Amino acid sequence: MTSAVKSQKFNTLFDWFDQDRDGQLTQGDMQAMAGLFAALAQGERESATAMRDAFERWWQLLLTHGDTDGDGRVSRDEFIAAMEANVTSPENFGSAVLAIADATMQALDTDGDGVLSREEYVSMASRLSVSPVNSAAGFQKLDRDGDGVISHEEYRTALSEFFLSADLDAPGNWLLGPIDSAA
Ligand SMILES: [Ca+2]
Ligand SMILES: [Ca+2]
Ligand SMILES: [Ca+2]
Questions:
Q1: Band (182; pLDDT cuts 50, 70, 90)
Q2: Residue 63 domain-assigned (yes or no)
Q3: Relative to the alpha carbon of 18, which ligand is closest?
Q4: Tell me, what is one Gene Ontology molecular-function annotation carried by this entry (predicted)?
Q5: Is residue 130 part of a domain?
Q6: Separation of 63 CA from ligand 3 center, angstroms?
Q7: Which of 27, 33, 136, 169 has minimal CB crowding within 10 Å?
Q8: Residue 116 CA: which ligand is closest?
Q9: Domain range for residue 22?
Q10: Is residue 13 in some structural domain?
Q11: Is 152 part of any domain?
């Protein structure tokens, strides 16, 4: 049974991933998401390929484990169940989810200082179709040590919390904005 907090987050994630907004996830939706992420890499082929590969792994997990009625599409309920049971399981989480975070961080950190400023973070989020209001609020929470930048470690911690934590107050819940209003 998926916790209420996790269901809420996976709901928010479903809405973000469902790029054509038809209420079903398809390979096309996931490829569209991968395209948004890959565009962040601005021609840096290694990061772009890593992102596309990770989204493809993610989709294959959803299709294999989530598409219980075999129609090649993943419904909201199928998504939430497969996210909990398969995508975020220890053997898959790194290759499907954290791989995207690592490639994103590498692509965005153009000056190589290993951190994201508020401007870099909000601009990245808006290119991924997250509203600036939500990402600015999220930045505050994700910058756990309050030094004004998000380190690679803070970013990874936020992702882990978003996907794995059932704690309503986990700062990483804010990855896509407030979960209560977004769900
Ligand atoms: Ca869709
Ligand atoms: Ca289905
Ligand atoms: Ca920080």
A1: very low
A2: yes
A3: 1
A4: calcium ion binding
A5: yes
A6: 36
A7: 169
A8: 3
A9: 4-173
A10: yes
A11: yes
Residue 22 CA, ligand 2 centroid: distance in Å: 13
* Percent of the chain surpassing pLDDT 70: 97
Residue 180 clears pLDDT 70, i.e. is over it:
no
Tell me the two tokens of residue 26.
């398809």
What pLDDT is attached to residue 164?
96
Q: Which residues are near ligand 1, the ion (C-beta closer than 5 Å)?
A: 18, 20, 22, 24, 29
DSSP state letters, the chain: ---HHHHHHHHHHHHHH-TT-SSEE-HHHHHHHHHHHHHHTTT-HHHHHHHHHHHHHHHHHIIIII-TT-SS-EEHHHHHHHIIIIITSHHHHIIIIIHHHHHHHHHH-TT-SSEEEHHHHHHHHHHTT--HHHHHHHHHHH-TT-SSEEEHHHHHHHHHHHHH---TT-GGGGBTB-HHHH-
pLDDT at 44: 84
Cα of 47 from ligand 3 centre, angstroms: 23
Q: In angstroms, what is the span from residue 74 Cα to ligand 2's centroid?
A: 4
CA distance linking residue 112 with residue 3, whole number of Å: 38
CATH number of the domain to which 8 belongs: 1.10.238.10
The number of distinct structural domains making up the chain is 1
pTM (two decimals)? 0.90
The environment of the single-atom ion ligand 3, i.e. residues with CB closer than 5 A, is: 143, 145, 147
Distance 149 CA to ligand 3 centre (A): 5
